[in-house]
Task: structure prediction
Amino acid sequence: MRSYFVYILASQRNGTLYIGVTNDLARRVYEHKCARTDGFTRIYGVNLLVYYEIFDTAFHAIGREKQLKKWNRAWKIRLIEERNPQWLDLYGTLH
Result:
């Protein structure tokens, strides 16, 4: 069974945020950390994995990503701090 992930990256605590979706969270965050692709996260140094959710289907993951992208910044910060109050980089906890 395949899993899909919605994730939030930050440049630092209360810094610039990025929301994405992937089917391989460890690989995708590694790509952000190594700045392998040009774009928003590379330009703004957004590479700390501060939040993620797991889904069974791409449909549900993409739906959640779209929902979170519409949220205001305060709601996103509250979501992160509910699960990760210290804004720790969760990349090291991925298997």
Notes: Residues 10 and 16 are 5 Å apart (CA to CA). Helices lie at 25-33, 40-44, 58-70, 73-83. The chain has one domain: 4-93.
